[in-house]
Amino acid sequence: MTKSRIIFHVDMNSFYASVEAAYDPSLRGKPLAIAGNAKERRGIVVTASYEARAKGVKPPMPLWEAEKACPGLLVRPPDFDRYRTMSRKMFEILYSYTPLVEPVSIDEGYMDVTNVHFEGTHGLELAKIIQDHIYHDLHLPSSIGVAPNKFLAKMASDMKKPMGITVLRKREVPDILWPLRAVEMHGVGEKTADKLSRLGLFTIEDLAKADPFFLTEKFGVAGKRMHEKANGIDFRPVDPESIHDFKSIGNSTTLPKDTANRQDITRILRNLSDSVSRRLKKKDVYAGNIQLTIRYHDRKTITRSKKLSYPVDGTDDIYDQAKQLFHDYWNGRSVRLLGVTGMDLVEKGHAVKPLDLFNYEEDVKKERLQSMIGEIRGKFGEHALLRGTQIGDETASDQLRDQKGRGTSLEKDFLRGTIGKDVEDDDEE
After folding, report:
1. What are the catalytic residues (predicted)?
2. CATH of the domain at 333
3. What is the pLDDT of residues 56-100, one digit of tens each?
4. Binding site membership: which residues?
5. How many angstroms separate the Cα of 292 from the Cα of each of 191, 201, 246, 320, 324?
6. Distances in Å between the alpha carbon of 107 and those of 49, 270, 417?
7. Could you give the CA distance from residue 292 to residue 176 in angstroms, rounded to a whole number?
8. Residues at the annotated binding site for Mg(2+)?
9. Is 125 annotated in the active site?
């Protein structure tokens, strides 16, 4: 008989706010919000302490609205270097108990502790030891879900916050999970939930009892997985190596002020494309698909993408696609945020560009030039060697300033260079 697995999902509570309070004890127990610079239109709440949440402050609320809901709200700008440091320390604690740790973002990860016996303790007692260890050493609260698989562990960790430990067994799924709305199931977003409701599927129980072939027909492989999870089934192992897998590399920036000026917009698109290009090169990958994100002044957001005939990593190639997508899909209204993302990543050596006998020398020169520019900007900053089209009333260094203050992809970079592996994303809770 196969031994049942014991999986932990360790989820840090209000991570950014908790880290700030750990560094500055005077913030503990007070309503605190982490938000960007309001003067530069980055005044959106990223996360908030539980004291602030109790008064109605929650992401992604505009800062002015949060301060209205909670007079006396303390506000701190995000410090991603600080959060990465604390994240590394947190994961070092998890690794001290087992090598079977799968980080999934800066503030959460899975542990397979099936065969871990720490000082005679196991299961629920071990979860308490780990939770206390993190809090004692780092002053960071966490919640831990304990279950026989990753999906149930994730659902369990969300049930008691802050500082909760919840056990969720497969036999308890009908009583605990089935009454919940479908959108409350991990992996089901608002758009999927809307589509489910149009199909008459409103709860997790509805998903569990639906015809799996019907779900597969409507949602593809995701439909099959939804059916399995709704029934408490999840065969995915805790995979420490999955942190090396990444599907996209993207950058976005909130504009200092809403604009419909095409020249300003194209300049920002080039800056973003250049940044994505250098990150692709740094990771030795090409992108086979370019995605553009546009957020309008009313916060309506669209994403559009284009599959490429061959993978690319150069600024010009990325920019050309992003600019064309913008031309095709922009509705002419003022823009608040722009993002460019390279997707369908392919490792170098596994991608082929059709050889153009007339332009191959130009391609080689362009590659050398882009490589040199990337090295110089990496050393001296984003403002170095700006093209004429990249210089405006605000320089590129203003548009793509210090990564700390921007909503760039943290994704899989947060444990770089530590604990012997490459082990950013925002926290919701």
Report:
1. 108
2. 3.30.1490.100
3. 998 888 888 999 999 999 999 988 889 999 999 999 999 999 999
4. 11, 107
5. 19, 32, 18, 11, 10
6. 15, 32, 17
7. 40
8. 11, 107
9. no
Q: Which range has highest mean pLDDT (59-63, 99-103, 362-366)? A: 99-103
Q: What does the CA dihedral 217, 218, 219, 225 come to, rounded to 10 degrees? A: -60
In terms of domains, do 20 and 94 share one? Answer: yes
DSSP E strands, 208-300:
248-259, 285-296
**Residue 418 burial by CB count (10 A; 0-12/13-18/19+): exposed, middle or buried?**
middle
Active-site residue identified among 108, 125, 241, 362? 108
The radius of gyration computed from the CA coordinates of the chain, to the nearest angstrom, equals 23
**Residue owning tokens 């823009």:** 335
Distance from C-alpha of 12 to C-alpha of 100, rounded to nearest angstrom: 18
Distances in whole angstroms, Cα of residue 279 to Cα of each of 249, 304, 409: 7, 21, 11
Domain membership of residue 76 as a residue range = 1-177+232-240
Query: Is residue 414, in this structure, part of any structural domain at all?
Result: no
Distance CA 377, CA 219 (A): 43
Which residues, 6+ apart, have CB-to-CB distance to 135 below 8 Å?
A: 141, 142, 163
269 located within any domain:
yes
Looking at the structure, tell me whether residues 211 and 300 fall in a common domain: no
Instruction: Work out how many domains the chain is built from and give that number.
Output: 3
AA letter at 81: D
- Angle of helix 315-329 relative to helix 360-380, nearest 10 degrees, comes to 90
Is 422 inside a domain boundary? no
CA distances to 214, 220, 286, 301, 315 from 339, in Å: 35, 28, 18, 11, 14
pTM of the model: 0.66
Strand 335-347: give its sheet, edge to edge: 248-259, 335-347, 285-296, 301-312
What pLDDT is recorded for position 335?
A: 95
Q: Give the Cα separation of 18 and 134 in Å (integer).
A: 12
Q: How many residues does the chain have?
A: 429
